[in-house]
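Complex 298.
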Amino acid sequence: MGGQQPEDPAGRRDPGAHRVLRAARPEGTRVRVGAVEVGGPGFVVMAGPCAVEGAEQLELAARAVAQAGAHLLRGGVFKPRTSPYAFQGMGEPGLKLLVDAGRRHGLPIISEVMETEQLPLMAEHSDILQVGARNMQNFGLLRALGRLRKPVLLKRGLSATVQEWLNAAEYILAGGNEQVLLCERGIRTFETSMRNTLDLAAVAWAKERTHLPVIVDPSHATGIPSLITPMSLAAAACGADGLLIEVHPRPEQALCDGQQAMSPGDFATLMQRLPGVLAAVDRHLWTPAVPAQIAGAR
Ligand code: PEP
Ligand code: MN
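Predicted structure with phosphoenolpyruvate bound:
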């Protein structure tokens, strides 16, 4: 890593990723998103559809995840699709639906930014800017995100090592933006029976090596709805700071990633099971702090 080497003023010697390392902030980074805090003792759940498809679909999804106790609403409006003919997302009108649904249900929102040109719009309206796995090494985008002062959720690339992932995060911190959340979303391996291989050891490793909060996305990591609950519980047990989960009111009709979408009912059951596992590792689901005067009156 060479983190100890002094930086060369002429910028010729690479000091390696060092701003992300635990030693740079031993107490850990806490990222505020609206009233929610990520990276503290409270465990944060972000949920919603892969893509915003329309007002009714989004409202049903938002209502379901809010009622179940999710803390943030997710929804893609710019979608990175393998096929150029697949649904590419609703774009700006979809973002407006997402903002409105978040407000109605009292949830901050997270949405993906794919290109630097989309940044002004997304930075104005999305509470967290998601960088997708395919963009983890889009250095122009990372540099532009470094110039913002907004939370960024950086997904691990499809075939990225932990070190490459941390270097990508370093780009954002080096620009002065310290509000970075790492997100493990599964990596490509020889295993083909699941969409990806969920690397939970990398979650524990990233928590040990860095001061950044780490989120787990069990939806893309497995691609299989029945595995989302056990992997979410395992993520909570191994030290993750939160989850990013795809929930769709009618998975069979979804325009994007329907095969891996969780049903609202299964999501609600997961939310009920998380506290038991979190308690075993001295954590709890995030809740707003109770103001001192109210707490004192109890
Ligand atoms: C998504 O969150 O819908 C998504 C496209 O994720 P990833 O970049 O991890 O594939
Ligand atoms: Mn998806």
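The first strand starts at residue 31 and ends at 33.
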